[in-house]
């Protein structure tokens, strides 16, 4: 039975994977019931056949290229893994309280560092503490299975090129959550969902078949991708709020004082509501009301879209009645330049664009996302900062 949608999705992921490995496609031709793509790493040549039913078959002499392609296709076994051993991937999810304890001890020993003097470890523990507390302790923080499936499916489609079987993965995630709730519930606790996602993805992750347990796509050995997926769930939960990323809240968290300030996650205007619906329809995972804070500036961005390249897309929805004022226009440009230096690619859309041609706006965002993923758009490119849809 043909499943062309599945085959086309695998072909798309395959092309992204080949690009990330800098392999060369030597030839592509139609064969019976499928497509054959010949791939080279400069030394070896393999043939990958994608069948109409969604299966993938790898042909070629035994070697590193064939093994890596078998890993991608989900055909690898422990008998043909690359060099190195394999230990269990950590399946547990992060605990905010452990991070708070580390920060407390660090400050007691070294004092409170300034932002310029703070180490990378310090900043990492601080940010994880904020994120993890929200997952573990936010009252009524549930997520519907519909939104859970939406977030996992689109994260895998956009960030993992390793050909994971989404249907099998989602089946396991749902099974792992149903033991904690009534079988007929359509919502689950966000922390339970986070644990289930972490366990399922770690168990199915194909880096266990590669040299030193490295992901063939990212060449990393840690579970950073799993944690990024878990973090992507929160904006689609029913929580509706995010902890304000402030010094006051930080001091309270490490002292176990939970009288915290929260910001709403929901759109703050009709044009933001329209943009949110458009992004969701396109399967673009976003963080609304993103807090971009540092020692000198405190900005909130309407929507931020993460990429695996480290670059973030910052989307601003501008009502012309306010943002077209000369003083506001100038302040917006100062803000944009600061955010650009901090790793944000700016995309501003005027209210008239969003109301009159939302599909075009979403298409432009989507295209830029994939350009960033493929390394074809960087911070050296001009931001989309003109209110009338063209780069300045």
Give the % helix. 40-55%
Number of strands: 12
Number of helices: 14
Main sheet overview = 4 strands, antiparallel
Query: Which strands sit side by side, in order, in the main sheet?
Result: 1-2-3-4
Distance between the termini: 51 Å
Q: Enumerate the spans where pLDDT stays under 50 for 5 or more consecutive residues.
A: 83-91
What's the structural blueprint in terms of helices and strands?
Layout: H1 4-21, E1 24-31, E2 34-40, E3 45-51, E4 56-60, H2 64-73, H3 96-110, H4 120-137, E5 142-144, H5 145-159, H6 166-178, E6 187-189, H7 190-204, H8 224-233, E7 241-243, H9 247-254, E8 262-264, H10 270-281, E9 287-293, E10 298-306, E11 312-318, H11 320-323, H12 326-341, E12 344-350, H13 351-356, H14 358-373
Parallel strand pairs: 11-12
Antiparallel strand pairs: 1-2, 2-3, 3-4, 5-6, 7-8, 9-10, 10-11
Account of the 3D structure:
This protein has 14 helices and twelve strands. The chain is α+β, with helices and mostly antiparallel strands. The protein has three domains: 77 residues, TATA-Binding Protein, CATH 3.30.310; 159 residues, no CATH class; 106 residues, Endonuclease, Chain A (3-Layer(aba) Sandwich). Helix 3 runs antiparallel to helix 4. It is globular. About 2% of the residues have low confidence.
């Amino acid at each position: 039975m043909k499943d062309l949608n599945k085959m086309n999705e695998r072909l798309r992921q395959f092309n992204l994977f080949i690009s990330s490995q800098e392999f060369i496609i030597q030839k592509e031709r139609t064969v019976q019931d499928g497509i054959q793509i010949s791939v080279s790493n400069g030394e070896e040549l393999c043939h990958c056949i994608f069948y109409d039913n969604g299966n993938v078959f790898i042909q070629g002499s035994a070697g590193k290229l064939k093994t890596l392609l078998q890993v991608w296709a989900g055909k690898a076994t422990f008998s043909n893994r690359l060099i190195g051993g394999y230990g269990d991937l950590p399946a547990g999810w992060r605990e905010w309280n452990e991070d708070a304890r580390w920060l407390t001890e660090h400050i007691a020993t070294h004092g409170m560092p300034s932002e310029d003097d703070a180490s990378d470890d310090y900043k990492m523990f601080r940010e994880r503490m904020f994120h993890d507390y929200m997952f573990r302790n936010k009252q009524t923080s549930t997520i519907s299975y519909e939104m859970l499936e939406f977030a996992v499916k689109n994260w895998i489609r956009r960030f993992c090129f390793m050909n994971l079987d989404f249907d099998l993965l989602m089946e396991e995630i749902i099974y792992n959550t149903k033991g904690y709730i009534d079988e007929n519930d359509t919502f689950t606790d966000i922390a339970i969902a986070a644990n289930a996602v972490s366990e399922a993805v770690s168990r199915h992750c194909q880096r266990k078949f590669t040299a030193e347990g490295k992901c063939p796509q990212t060449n990393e050995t840690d579970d950073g991708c799993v944690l990024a997926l878990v973090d992507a769930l929160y904006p689609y939960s029913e929580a509706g709020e995010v902890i304000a990323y402030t010094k006051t809240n930080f001091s309270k968290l490490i002292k176990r004082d939970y009288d915290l300030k929260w910001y709403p996650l929901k759109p703050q205007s009709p044009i933001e509501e329209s943009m949110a619906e458009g992004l969701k329809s396109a399967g673009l995972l976003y963080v609304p009301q993103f807090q971009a804070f540092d020692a000198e500036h405190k900005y909130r961005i309407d929507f931020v879209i993460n990429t695996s390249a480290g670059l973030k897309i910052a989307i601003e929805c501008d009502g012309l009645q306010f943002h077209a004022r000369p003083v506001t226009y100038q302040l917006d440009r100062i803000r944009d330049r600061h955010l650009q230096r901090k790793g944000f690619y700016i995309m501003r859309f005027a209210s008239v664009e969003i109301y009159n041609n939302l599909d075009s706006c979403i298409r432009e965002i989507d295209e830029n996302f994939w350009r960033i993923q493929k390394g074809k758009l960087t911070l050296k490119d001009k931001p989309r900062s003109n209110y009338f849809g063209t780069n300045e």
